[in-house]
Design brief:
Layout lengths: L5 H15 L9 E10 L29 E9 L2 E7 L12 H16 L8 E3 L7 E2 L2
Parallel strand pairs: 1-4
Antiparallel strand pairs: 1-2, 2-3, 4-5
Length: about 140
């Protein structure tokens, strides 16, 4: 939400209020998804982590320019949690998330799992979408 403009935030709120009266419990029909990257070589993303100490340790750790990382995706809703899903290639190696891999995961893993639940309608909130779109 921090990267959204005030107008984009207004669109999300407007979408919610317009649809809240349409369904009995609209909030329970929304799925929220997100992905995160975990570095596998002790690398810490300094933008998201702060370490406080009374003493300056006077040490450094050399790290590779492009450390190996693991991409994990998960979604939650009133009915529970789907995932986690780990993005790996056919050989089992960690891979980055791109449009094709994300689409394949949604099509081949998430939707079949979603079909195991008795739901008539859900709203899937993509992380990169400004306004949720119905996929079910």
């Amino acid at each position: 939400m921090n990267r959204l403009t005030p107008e984009q935030r207004f669109q999300i709120v407007q979408f919610y209020f317009e649809n809240n009266g349409r369904a009995r419990d609209f909030r329970s029909l929304i799925l929220f998804s997100d992905e995160v990257h975990f570095w596998l070589n002790v690398y810490v993303n300094k933008q998201n982590c702060r370490i406080w100490s009374e003493a300056n340790p006077q040490m450094y750790v050399e790290t590779p320019l492009h450390p190996e990382k693991l991409a994990v995706w998960c979604t939650s809703w009133a009915g529970g949690i789907f995932g986690p899903y780990f993005f790996k290639n056919d050989e089992g190696h960690n891979v980055t998330v791109n449009g094709d891999r994300y689409r394949a995961m949604i099509t081949n893993v998430f939707i079949p799992e979603l079909n195991n639940h008795d739901v008539q309608e859900l709203w899937f909130q993509h992380v990169t979408q400004l306004v949720p779109q119905s996929i079910y």
